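RETRY 2/3 - previous attempt timed out on the joint model. Re-submitting the same 372-residue input unchanged.
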Amino acid sequence: MLAARGFGGLTLRAVAAELGASTGLLTHYFPHKRALVAHALDVLDRQAADRHRPATEAATAEAATARGLPVLRAALLDILPLDGEGAAGNRIWVGSWDAALTDPGLTEEHAERYRRARRRMAELCADAQELGELPADRPAADLAALAQSFTLGLVVQALFAPAEFPPERQRALLDDFLAGLAAGER
Amino acid sequence: MLAARGFGGLTLRAVAAELGASTGLLTHYFPHKRALVAHALDVLDRQAADRHRPATEAATAEAATARGLPVLRAALLDILPLDGEGAAGNRIWVGSWDAALTDPGLTEEHAERYRRARRRMAELCADAQELGELPADRPAADLAALAQSFTLGLVVQALFAPAEFPPERQRALLDDFLAGLAAGER
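RETRY 2/3 succeeded.
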């Protein structure tokens, strides 16, 4: 429902109707819209984590030995709206920003989510620096902030203009960006 | 009100109260919330255009002769939330994305806004390519899409974590990004 109607269109009554439950039953578990929204974002977080977990033992072994720029590239590709599921998930995240910037609790939860994501990316960037794939003269945290900025902004543009940002162009732009990250020295 | 309460918190009644007017008078001009929101975004567009207009004849002459990468850099700096006004304006834009991704009319208006912005940036990129400041082997439209992606994503991160993205870090990250754009070849 969030993907289709946005946060502005979400009501406890509509969710209860969709579930075939009474509003009273729903509010027993989620006393207000904010609680429901926080739960929806947690579910989305867990789904994303599950999607990124290797499906087989062989894939686990491969993931354990993979290093550097290709791993960073895969992590950024995972974020982009390259298919319908990716577009729906991203549409919910982008839609959550209005409420998240208004509600101090949600603001901090979101800020912490993005902080964690930047820390994970900074580890991948540091690894790529060790391998000589990214310039060593800039803090890995800055490289991570550059990567997260680029990726989030591409998500927004692709959601508004999917015809101009088909999957292959998103991938090509990501590769352009990473080439710049690898080459760029101030 | 949009900057403080977000789109989710905006009601015609609250706006009327803020104006000291009746809801009836307000709905005479804006029959529904969507019309009010569209008007607010147009006002924001015009304010941004006014801010970028050179204030003096000397500034006009200077702007007319300025070219290439410094002009692109200035255009991107103009977008970033480097002060309170920039943060409030950006907070409204980011907040508008939830409604804009739900309402087909608003989606198209937003898509067209970003398309226009990319076209303007592509002209600046093409100029920088002519001057040899940006690599000539990539379409200016791609360089513009990279620049807009990076800038929009940095806006979002800076809104959620202003302490981690003070103005001087935003500027430094933009310069890192532009250095990569200038250096990057696939």
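DSSP finds ten helices and no strands in chain A. Closing ticket.
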